[in-house]
Every structure is written in C-alpha cells, then in structure tokens.
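Z., the sequence and structure:
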Amino acid sequence: MVEQTVQTGDDGAVDHHGEILPPLSKSASRIDVEKIESKRRTGNKAGDHPGVAWFYHMMRGLCRLAVNQQFRTIEITGQENISEDAGILTVGWHTNGLIDPSTIFVTQPKMLVFGGRHDLITRAVIGPIASLSGAQPVLRQAELARGGASSEAGARINGKTMLTLAECIAHGHGTALFPEGTSHEDSKMRRLRTGPVRSVIAANSIAHEKGLPEPHLLPVGLHYRTSWYFRTDAWFEYGKPIPLDGAIHPPEDRARLMAGEWVEAPAERVNQLRDEVRSRLAPMTPDASTWDEHRCWHLLGHLQALAQGDKLTSWRQEVLAARKARDQIREGDQNLDTHQQAADKIAKRLHATGLDGRSLDLQGLRVPRISERLAIIPALILAIISAPLTLVGSGLMILMGKIMGDRTDEGLDARTTYHLLASMLGPLLIWPLPIIGIACAFWICLPEFRVWTPLLALSLPLLFHISNKLALSAWDFYVIARDATRIARLRKHPEAKSIDEEITNLLAALK
C-alpha cells in the first residue's frame, strides 16, 4: 500500500461523538499501513514480551539517565501498589509527550509493552529503537477519521496491538496507556477513550482462563511544575489499583481470545470501567478550568501553610496543598471561595514575573536569602569547569534537542520529548564521534603516550557524564540566583506594597 498523507493542523475534523479531533503533526499525517505492520515485533509465543530483552534494558538505562537530567527534583510515591506477580496496566493523563511513558518506563521494575501512535515505530531514528523495545502501533481516530487508512486496516492493526498488550498483561508484564488518546496542554483531562480498559478486560479474561493472577489497573498522577520546561520538578504518584471484579468476557468470547482472536468486551462494562478510571484519575490531575485557576489554588495552598506556621518545601507538598484548596472550595468552603479572587490576582502577578508562592512569607514578598543571591558564584564556577567537556561531548545533542524542541509542530507538550531524546540517544549516537576524534588526536599528537589511548577512550563517557552533571548543577544554581533577582526586582516595584497588603490580609483570613 502506498503511503497516505492526510491533513495536518487544525482542520475542524470531528469524531463520531462530534468532538474536535486533535490536529495531526507532519509525522502523524504520513501513514503507511504495510510499513506499520512490517515494523511491528511480536513475541515467540502468546504472552512473551515482543522486545529484545538486552536492548530493552539498555534503553531503560539510557532513559533513566535522561529522565534524571530532565528534572531538577523527582519524587515517586505509591510504588508499593505495583504488584510483583500480576500484570499491570498503568493509566495516566497525558500532557508531556514521550516524557509521560518514559517516567513509567523507568519507575516500574516490570518489562513494559507500550502502545503508541503509529509513527512511533516508523520514524527514522526513534522507530527502530521503539520497535526493538517492543512498542506496538495504534491507528487513532485522529488518523482514521481523516482517511489515513481504511477501517479494515485500522481494525486489523489495532486489534493485533490490543491482543498483544492483553496477552502480555495477562502473563505478568506491564504496559502504560493514556486514555485521552493524545498529549495536550490543557489543565484538565480530555474525554477518555476506551482502548486501555478494553485491553485490560481482555487481559483479565485471558488470565482467568489460564489461572493467572488478576491484572491490576493502576492509576498514576504525573505532576510537573511546568511540563514543557527543562529541569522542572516532578512527582509521580501511583494510586491504589482499580478492581476488575467481573470485568471479563462471556465464556464463548474467552475461548476466541484464547485462540488468538481479538474480541470486544461488553460495551456496558467497558464504559463503567472507563468512567471509574476517570473518577480515580481526575483528582490526581490539576482538574482546573484554566491554568490560572490552578495557579490560584497553588497560591492558596502556600498561604494556608504559612498561616499555620508551616512552609511547603517540596513539589509534592505543593501539589497536595493545591489539591486540598481545590477540594475545599468545591466542597463549599466559603472562606476560601470568598478570597479566591484576591489570590487569583496575586498568582497572576507573580506568574507574569516568573514567580510563584515560594516567593512569599508572612510579610508578603520575602527577602531573598544571601545564599540565593550568591548562587550565581557556584553557577559560574561549575559552568567554567564543565564547559570544555560538555561542549565537546554533548554540545551537538544539546543544540539538536533545543532546535527540534523549539521547532516542533506538535505543541508545547512535545517540546520536552526532543530534550529527552537528545539526552537519551546522545550517548549512543553522538558521543562516539568526539570520543573517536579525541582518541585519534591523542594518538597522533602524543605518540609517547599511545599505550594510554584505549584507557582514554574508555574513560571519556564517564568524564562526559560527570561534566554534564556539573553543567546541570550550574544551571540549577543559576535558576536559584535568577529567581532571587526576580523577587528583589518585584519588591522594588510600585505594586509591591499592595501585594504585601493583600498577602497579609489573606493570611489573616486563612488562620
């Protein structure tokens, strides 16, 4: 079949519910059914992981390295909810492109099988990597409704993907799917698709027939301070599993599943489970009408903590405090609701300056600490120390990640995808170039030390890594100093006095 190219951008296409379909990027708009089917890997037998084990573990190690570079702080909670024996389908909201599945990839011990957009396995560089890692292609309604492939091809490709995922989950592997069906920049979840719950119901039916442990449907809250920023803060919140009691096919359909045929589960049970997923996931997201409203709740969370003589010291604490403020307002807390407008005004003013509730204390805008002002000194020292090796070893991958992230047509939520890919694939694809160049220069220019050339070549990856860590620390110190400067400037602004007065009034009201 010849490659089909369909409309990109905002074309007003709608699904069968009449809802606007997400716009397609250039990559997603190119659909070659034969290529999709030929690039898909399958296990040797039903339930086997379709990836190459050694390659999968190597990529998970590189991905873990990249994720640690992507975030300034990372906190993970609820990992005790990840079963050692039962298969797991992890579901979360989707606002950060490939970062979202990557965080699950590196925080779960199981071998995961991912289902993703069709071009995940057909793109030039990432395609072979995703395929060897076992990723399975999906043709979404966003492609099918625009004529990218026939309904028969879509049913065939998606049915095989769903059955592969179900078999792997039933046999104890894990997977992560995002039921919104697309990554986005919204402050609340979009309508959920049924694909993930259909897969886990099929997995439960297969496990039931084979006497295997019942799979777990595991919600995860993916919390980023600003998802499209490099070196932002992250908290990954694994929730309690959603029970699958009774979520199995009738006996005759289970027999067809066992024979390798994809069979849809009863629609009523699918919709019930989808709605349960939404009810469990929504509280683990901002669930705000706008990002301004979300920032207002965060400010109220900070102020409530200050009013009680406490201070929020981690991103997780900030998320929980904002969640508490949101829930109190929705439950009818008149005091918070009355002062929400004033808090919203302050939150917008702080955000316009690049600040948030961390810049406040009991007097209003806090005085920056001396250590924060002087953070520019270690930033400069570390930058100077790390610059030579960082620029030589990683300069090209930093430049590529920056340019591709800024030029992507897939929205802000895809920006960090390219930062991650550059960090993850750089050691594999880019580092060999400077290593070979430096080793050759050493061999030619220092003939008396040629015996040390292999040791130099072997030590350079470690030196590049250490240099990158120093460069990241330099950036973190710079951000501390930059934020201190922003606070100091705002304190000198004519609005500072009114902000202090508003904060004082809010603190008095919240005590």
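The chain has three domains: 46-284, 294-361, 373-490. The chain has a mean pLDDT of 91.

Let me know what you think.
H.
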